[in-house]
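Entry details:
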Amino acid sequence: MNRKTNRRWLVTGLLAVMLTTTGCQRHTLYHHYEHTPLTAWEKSDTLFFAVRKMTDRAVIRRDVELRISDRYPYQQLCLVVEQTTLPSRFMRRDTLNCRLTDPEGEMLGKGVTLYQKTFHLPDISLNEGDSLAIKVHHAMKRQSLPGIADVGILLKAY
């Protein structure tokens, strides 16, 4: 092969790699945390998240992010995530069982005094003009839970 042919193959290969890696990237549509008192997140304290209207149709990856201290007394946390798509008023309810410690009781996730952990919910499809109203509350037997600092919602479009 001559130099010109080698150069073409190199350029073609680089373009293919670039298209492959950028074609599957997601961009963040929404990322917000709501604070909860570290002393106790009450069962009746529902957290609200309002997501603005979509500018395009997209498949959305949904994640719930938690920041927790080692004062949290359990290995798991059960969350209920209720999502209403507007203007259709379609409601979806997901129950998320979040494992927060390993079998020995050590906190999972990244951090030193607060540990951050991310939990995935099933992907959804949204149309242009749709917006979301999201509510999150815990579904534990105990009324008040110490050690939970923040609950976040992260939405990324494919």
